[in-house]
Amino acid sequence: xxxxxxxxxxxxxxxxxxxxxxxxxxxxxxxxxxxxxxxxxxxxxxxxxxxxxxxxxxxxxxxxxxxxxxxxxxxxxxxxxxxxxxxxxxxxxxxxxxxxxxxxxxxxxxxxxxxxxxxxxxxxxxxxxxxxxxxxxxxxxxxxxxxx
Length: 148
Hints:
Elements: E1 8-13, H1 19-31, E2 36-41, H2 49-57, E3 80-83, H3 86-95, E4 102-105, H4 118-139
Parallel strand pairs: 1-2, 1-3, 3-4
Helix pairs in contact: 1-4, 2-4
C-alpha cells in the first residue's frame, strides 16, 4: 500500500445489513490487519440473508456480523469514511464536523430494493458484492512488488 493509505476505514450505509458488511468483510479479506476496518449504518438492522449467501459464495462468512449504528461504534478515530448510501453520506458529513477524517461517497445500489424471483434478487446482491470488491481493490491498490 502507498504511504498515503489510510490506517483505519469505516464503511457506512443505511442499515449496516447489506452493503457495508460486504465492504467490511471484503476489505478485511484483502488487507487483514494492515488497515483497521469497521462498518456502521444510520440505523442498524440485522444482517440480510441474501448478503450471507452471496458472501459465502466467495468464501467470506458474515453470518455473525453484528449490525451497529454510528453511536455504537467502539472507535471514532477513522482516517476515512466510505459512504455507500445517501443517508450515510449525510450522517458522515454531520459527524465529521467534530471528527478529523475524510469522507468519500461511492454510489452503490441497494440490492434489497430489487424485486423479482430469488435468482434475480441474488444476482443483484452478487453485482453489488463484485462492484464493491473491484472498487476496494482499486481504491486501496497495493504498490507493485519490488524487483529483485
